[in-house]
Write a structure and sequence with these properties.
Elements lengths: L1 H4 L4 H13 L3 H14 L5 H12 L3 H14 L4 H16 L3
Length: 96
Amino acid sequence: MARSLEPDYALVYIALGQALETQGRAVAAIQQYQEAALLQPDNREPYLSIADIREDRNDIGKSVAGLTPAVMQIPDSQYLILRRKDQLTWRLRRPY
């Protein structure tokens, strides 16, 4: 209902993504977070939520790749930069 009333309000998509994530519907949640990121590119929350889901699914490569455009979009976010570095370090140290 909220999405139909405010189709360009990014927080609606974030809330919907969180609800879907809680239900275990990761793919649908990622889609909602991606929509939120398109609507409000300077909000780091959707990028971090997507990274968390991918990290939980043990898909660090996609998680790091997803944080790269976030860092480019919000270059002064030290948290995003640190998060991306942590994931890259973890990926490099992982035994193959």
